[in-house]
């Protein structure tokens, strides 16, 4: 009921004519609302302005908003969310990073930032961001899934290279075989074990069939190395 009441009050605050106005019409109203301390109303108008013309709205943020004000991060989040929905991952990433300057431990924003890093092909950056997420929230499902799969795929890649290289040796010596086994042991310790820990946490949080299958594959590799 409280949510419905809030939505109804916001609706009353925003005349129907606002919904069809351009960004150029709405942004002066944002300025007015901000100057009067009506932050919630300003954010609502800013959101509508972004939908009507995000380029003008973005420029307004950079040139007219006090970056040290309490409302600034909320406006940044609106731009980040808008660009994410529009699949403009570069801009969305820019504004999530801007938001995180003020709130570096906001888990939700960190997860969104990691998503944008992935969409921009920055897998290692996403890895670091998800690791930060887990330091703040060890039970974050999305971060555990990503890290579990990342380390599993890395382990599979490294193991395949070791196997392929060893198969090229027609008559391996004991030293070559020992080096091969040591390499497998390192791969298991550095990657498979990490993947196993993250995916086990996933299963504790969510009944993931895929995570269960991957864990079974890791157990088979572990058994082969004994």
What would you note in describing this structure?
The chain is mainly alpha-helical. It has two domains: 16-136, Tetratricopeptide repeat domain (Serine Threonine Protein Phosphatase 5, Tetratricopeptide repeat), CATH 1.25.40.10; 138-226, Serine Threonine Protein Phosphatase 5, Tetratricopeptide repeat. Helix content is 80%, strand content 0%. It contains eleven helices and no strands. The chain is elongated and about 80 Å long.
Defining traits:
226 residues; 11 helices; mainly alpha; elongated; Serine Threonine Protein Phosphatase 5, Tetratricopeptide repeat; 2 domains; single chain
Percentage beta strand = under 5%
The rough form would be described as: elongated
CATH domain class name of the largest domain: Mainly Alpha
Average pLDDT rating? 91
Radius of gyration: 25 Å
Helix content: over 70%
Distance between the termini: 60 Å
> In DSSP terms, counting alpha (H) and pi (I) runs of 4 or more, how many helices?
11
CATH superfamily of the largest domain: Tetratricopeptide repeat domain
Poorly predicted sequence stretches spanning 5 or more consecutive residues: 15-19
Total discrete domains: 2
What secondary-structure arrangement, pairings included, does this model have?
Blueprint (H helix, E strand, L loop, with lengths): L1 H12 L9 H13 L3 H14 L1 H11 L7 H14 L3 H14 L4 H13 L3 H14 L4 H27 L6 H32 L3 H16 L2
Summarize the structure.
The protein is mainly α and 226 residues long.
């Amino acid at each position: 009921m409280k949510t419905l009441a809030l939505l109804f009050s916001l609706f009353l605050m925003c005349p129907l004519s606002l919904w069809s106005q351009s960004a150029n019409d709405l942004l002066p109203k944002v300025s007015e609302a901000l100057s009067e301390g009506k932050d919630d109303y300003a954010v609502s108008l800013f959101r509508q302005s972004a939908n009507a013309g995000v380029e003008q709205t973005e420029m307004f943020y950079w040139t007219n908003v006090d970056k040290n004000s309490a409302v600034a991060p909320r406006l940044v989040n609106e731009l980040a969310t808008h660009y994410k929905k529009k699949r403009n991952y570069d801009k969305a990433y820019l504004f999530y990073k801007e938001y995180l300057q003020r709130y570096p431990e906001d888990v939700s924003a960190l997860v969104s930032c990691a998503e944008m890093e992935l969409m921009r092909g920055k897998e290692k950056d996403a890895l670091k961001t998800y690791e930060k997420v887990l330091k703040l929230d060890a039970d974050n499902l999305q971060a555990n899934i990503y890290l579990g799969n990342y380390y599993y795929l890395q382990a599979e890649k490294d193991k395949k290279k070791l196997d392929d290289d060893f198969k090229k040796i027609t008559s391996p010596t004991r030293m070559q075989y020992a080096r091969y086994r040591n390499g497998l042991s390192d791969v298991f310790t550095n990657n498979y074990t990490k993947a196993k820990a993250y995916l086990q946490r996933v299963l504790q949080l969510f009944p993931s069939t895929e995570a269960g299958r991957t864990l079974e594959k890791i157990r088979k590799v572990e058994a082969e190395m004994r």
